[in-house]
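User: Can you predict the 3D structure for this chain?
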Amino acid sequence: MIEQFANDATSDLAVQCLIGDSEITVVSAGTFPTAGPFRIRIDDELLLVTSVAGSMFTVSRGIEGTMAAAHAQGVAVTHIITAGGLAAAIATIPSTTILPGTAPSAPTAGFTLYVDVADNTLKAIASTGTITPLALP
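Assistant: Here is the predicted structure, written as structure tokens:
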């Protein structure tokens, strides 16, 4: 499943959360993604939300090196982007192969492809620092 993201998603715990709980309830889930997976922070703990049912989140506790902990009713629950979340999102991007001859001016080795958002063009950066716009077929 593809990692889900939302801007400024935050709420408070509706009820206390104990260390062994695999479900948490927030006061309002309206700003959070409507389905998992996505990541949240409660106090110093990172949690992976795997499913959403109204204001109840099913979670995996103590992810990415944090420890599961009890949390008091009313503490903040914040949707966050983490290194693990970014890695999961990047892993869903299909790889693309540029076939020989489709971009004859591209460097032949040691380069990185990127999309220049200023002009929406595909470009290659050679290991020498040279930037080459690529012509797509």
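Confidence is low (pLDDT under 50) at residues 98-104. The longest strand covers residues 45-53.
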